Amino acid sequence: MALAKRIIPCLDVTNGRVVKGVNFVNLRDAGDPVEIAKRYDEQGADELTFLDITATSDNRDLILHIIEAVAAQVFIPLTVGGGVRAVEDVRRLLHAGADKVSINTAAVFNPQLVKECSDRFGSQCIVVAIDAKQTVWGAAPKWEIFTHGGRKATGLDAVAWAQKMQGLGAGEILHTSMDRDGAKIGFDLNLTRAISDAVNIPVIASGGVGNLQHLADGVKMGGADAVLAASIFHFGEYTVEQAKKHMQEQGIEVRL
Amino acid sequence: MPDIAIIDYGMGNLLSVSKAFEHVAPLAEIVVTADPAVIKAATRVVFPGVGAMPDCMRELAARGLTEVVKQAAENKPFLGICLGMQALFERSEEGDCAGLGLLPGNVRLFPAEAMQDAAGNKLKVPHIGWNRVHQAALGTTPHPMWAGIEDGERFYFVHSYYAEPADPAVVAAFTHYPFAFTCAVARDNVFAVQFHPEKSQAAGLHLLANFITWEGNPR
């Protein structure tokens, strides 16, 4: 087995700045997106994910300029999500330098969008993002999908949804545990494991990383193909390189 | 006369490829173009691509580029990337589609029944991420495109189909997932890779820099 497990720093972007919240609210400024992207590239990040969390469409086009600027200086894969509603949005992001586009809310309202985009641009560049909250505990746990940045319940089961998205051509599933996001208590490993077992496409775990062992657990216990984190890297607690070394010590194959 | 023409046939993220070349060759004239005359005049040609094979072949034909690409591959240093490597072969299982037929062999889907590692863990398709590229000996000397790049270096992959050359002499590198598949081919003026050098950080930029100085091997 030679394919490395990936570490993906995530940059939540609004009004041209990187921010980070707790449980999707209470945003804190973390800096300039291009500078942060360059720093993570130097630290050996395997990919970068940008989420445009701009609530209104006012500043929507800012992200295109940011992606263009990053793509001119950072030569690793870039995923961009947030506010993607149409095939045209995907085309514009890819054209600006994104390698993959993540679709979240729009996939719930129009699942065919995932099929249209994967048919048009290829499965490899369509990531379906899922924000999920646990609703049933015990022996047969369940998680429900929320949309609109975690504000609206959908009644959809997260694991079944991941399978459906795979069927419509998604190339990857990025799932975020809303219960854990920003809480620094580790991934919801049961959720990660349930999705990873249910699909044959790569799964990216997100939401809750507070230390380096959490990243290793996502791979070893959750079965994730990639792990995504924000806070632990943004505020200088750990570097990506430290994270990789820690994972390697746990017997996980990483790119160093 | 451009130094490098990146063929634009509406498939994939050409900005990434051109930005990466601009980074390694700031003085070179690099153009992204669908103009046959510009492609014919260029010193070197890059044939990138992401997406699906049937779309690739259709878009090439729609732009009148099918023959132009074949000629470029015969006449001058030619770098294929990802779908731009797969399209060089005779046929792809993706949409059961004919390729350009410059290299003998076919393009296949990773077979579901084979996708597990030695420990029995499920391997996902698409094959996404950084995997090791093992350089194959072509004759007695390593291919000049590998100069300065460590054997076994990691490059970034994202694909569900892989090329299976009929002629083992064209294999320039292989990668394990979980079996050894061909991830780079070389013959005459053509060097083509399944992975994305433009997204493979230092090692990828090194490969692109090698292409700037590679003179090819005209037949």
Number of helices of chain B: 6
Helix content of chain B: 10-25%
Count of separate DSSP helical elements of chain A: 10
Structural class of chain A: alpha/beta
**Content of β-strand of chain A:** 25-35%
Q: Give average pLDDT of chain A, whole number.
A: 92
The structural class of chain B is alpha/beta
The biggest beta sheet of chain B is recorded as:
8 strands, mixed
Low-pLDDT ranges of chain A: none
**Rg value of chain B:** 16 Å
Q: Which parts of chain B are unreliable, with pLDDT below 50 for 5 consecutive residues or more? A: none
H and E string of chain A: EEEHEHEHEHHEEEHEHEHEHH
The 3D shape of chain B can be described as globular
Q: Residue share in helices of chain A?
A: 25-40%
Number of strands of chain B: 14
User: Major β-sheet of chain A, in short?
Assistant: 8 strands, parallel, barrel
Strand neighbour order, sheet with most strands of chain A? 1-4-5-6-7-10-11-12
Chain pair with largest interface: A-B, 39 and 45 residues
What coarse outline of chain A follows from CA principal-axis ratios? globular
Cα distance spanning the termini of chain A: 16 Å
Spatial strand sequence of the major β-sheet of chain B: 2-1-3-4-14-13-12-9
